[in-house]
Amino acid sequence: MIPMLNPSTTGRLFDDPAAGPTLELHVYAAGKPVASLLHAERDNPPLFEFLLDWFRSKMPVSAPPFDADTFAEWADKGLLLSRASKPAFDTGPALDGGLAIARQILPEAGDLIETCICLNKVAPELSKTLTANRYAEWPVLFSGTALSTIRSWYRQMFAQGWARQESPDSPRRVLHNDPIGRLVIEAMAAPVEAATGCRLLPTYSYAVQYEGGQDLPRHRDRAQCEYTVSIALDYEPSGELKASPWPIKIHTAHGDVEHLHPFGGGSIFKGRELAHSRDPLPQGHTATMLFIHYVLHDFAGSLS
């Protein structure tokens, strides 16, 4: 019997400069971390149209036109379910950026996606500092209800096992392009353009939870990270903290610079050019960060 497609799936249809029309799928399956899948029209046109029809009609389907390798990948990531499997949520597939599923996980998160985020204005000094140094501290971007909701969302996502281990060599847990991360990266696009003075494209969001003893090895970011914004969301034990006590180090030709992020704020820097790192987090502590990335508007590579 052919498995069914997981109705707890959200999609984003976009035009990739290199691959053409592309679907980015986010799959929520019980007992599995949130999975991301990219499928370009040019890779398999019949399968691409099949997926679009599935999203648009929300009708159950049972015979996707795919090969054995695609079948195995989709089954492993939870996009295919056995008829006995119970979907994580009864929402139906939707090209909606995850609004329906966000409401199922945390109603306030769905409200936030629908109403967007009210962001603080960009100070002119920030743009001058960024232009001169290729990095700048960014004061609080969002606060109040927005920060509280975003923090609650990621607490729930990490606590309930929706995140995945980054790699066999890295134990930190990550969420790639989740609905709230996408909301933040889209909302921040105009302020980041104002700060950089450049026309930009959002690439991807990356929420990370670090546990005691974990560090961030010194590195430069990949091609999709012309500009990186690092935002502090949460820290435990928190007490009366208004900022994360765990600094990021930006390594420049003139020496290392340390930034302590206020909650809901952080740093912006040229991630491909400037190496950056963090020392090991103290044992018994937990830090949650959100990274959002942008490239110049004429960037021709993958945006994920």
Topology readout:
Blueprint: E1 4-5, E2 9-16, E3 20-27, E4 35-40, H1 45-57, H2 68-77, E5 80-81, H3 99-105, H4 107-115, H5 124-133, E6 135-138, H6 144-159, E7 164-167, E8 170-176, H7 179-187, H8 189-196, E9 200-211, E10 216-219, E11 227-236, E12 248-252, E13 255-259, E14 266-269, E15 275-278, E16 286-296
Antiparallel strand pairs: 1-5, 2-3, 3-4, 6-14, 7-8, 8-9, 9-16, 10-15, 11-14, 11-16, 12-13, 12-15
* Number of alpha- plus pi-helical segments: 8
Class derived from helix and strand content: alpha+beta
Q: Strand sequence of the main sheet, in spatial order?
A: 6-14-11-16-9-8-7
Helix content: 25-40%
Order of helices and strands: EEEEHHEHHHEHEEHHEEEEEEEE
- Overall shape: it is globular
From the N-terminal CA to the C-terminal CA, the straight-line distance is: 34 Å
Cα gyration radius (Å): 20 Å
Largest sheet: 7 strands, antiparallel
Report the sheet-strand fraction. Answer: 25-35%
Q: List low-confidence stretches.
A: none
Taking all residues together, what is the mean pLDDT? 91
Q: Number of DSSP strands?
A: 16
